[in-house]
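Worked problem 6 (solution included).
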Amino acid sequence: MTTMPNRWLIALAGVVMQVALGAVYAWSVFRIPLTQAYGWSIAEVTLAFTIAIFVLGFAAFAGGLWMRRVGPRQVALAAGAFYGLGVFLASFAGGRLWLLYCSYGLIGGVGLGLGYIVPVATLVKWFPDRRGMITGIAVAGFGSGALITAPLATRLIAQVGALNTFAILGVVYLIAVMGAACFMQNPPDGYRPPGWAPSAVQQRQRSARTYTLREATATWQWYGLWALLFLNTTAGIAIISQAGPMAQEIAQVTPATAASLVGVIAIANGAGRFLWAWLSDFIGRRAVFLLMFPIQAVIFALLPAVESFAVLTALACAVLLCYGGGFGTMPAFAADYFGAENVGPIYGLMLTAWGFAGVLGPMLIAGLRQSTGQYDEALYILAGLMFLSTAIPVFVGAPARGTQPPQGVPAKVV
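Solution. The predicted structure is:
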């Protein structure tokens, strides 16, 4: 008789994998060293990060489809190989931007996407009793990855240079992701934790049927969730992409102190993924977004007036709590509306929103900073965008319950 694996051990391995992948959020500590060493512009350096996040979204969709055929372990092993190799090859970029884009951006981005979807899609099947909490845990590691990497990379850059730092980190990432991949596996079909039955709240939130990818994308609700993720991500990733330089320019702090901001907001990013997702199990997924958007609108409107590093840190943390909350809540949101069985490809395709936001957010803030010499205009634009976004969760009700997929008719708001 086959022994049932410990689902919490699988969850722990998923967190380890996500921490290594989430190191991508420490990119801003490379921005100034690379611009100074090679004369590249802010936008040119930021584009490497942008490419990685854009590719991530599409690679996550491919990974979700691939998992349906081969299971999570093989996809996770491939993720480790692509991600580690991509970061390692960035060490050969020298003054060649195209090589940085192809290595860190393209190859590394493929690894990021393949790896990101594995713990999310796997753990939501192992924890039907705690969907919000477990998806929050699953992606909290990704949000917290920069907490470890930012200070480590800053020290390595000072000692061995940016390119050698890429080489060292690439090897570390490969080992960490491939090691965690060995624990990834799906539960048996129809798995339920012993003694568990859905509560009345869980039954109300969840679809009465399992949707295929084709059926899910035939509903307007899928596109509504995509828009929520896209808009929420655009705001937070703009801050992530410029956190270190923003701190140095706005608060006049040293690079080491600025790197500490990257680490602190990484904590907020990770905490938000868990806290908002956990809260969504009680107040509902839509209510979470109804809170997060106006909070961010106010914060972005206040940021241009900030001069204190402490205040900047507090406001940036609040934005990153909301940013993380979107990623923590959305996998459970998708599983509630369309069922957990096909959440890999359904949510994987939804992560293309992350890819497009990864282009809009960083390029908006970097482009306006380059052209105007300050961040104010970009921050006000983001404030307006968050204010307008508040209307969307009001209307994105669950698909109609029943045996047939809805035909594009909006569900009643409940």
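Discussion: Confidence is low (pLDDT under 50) at residues 402-414.
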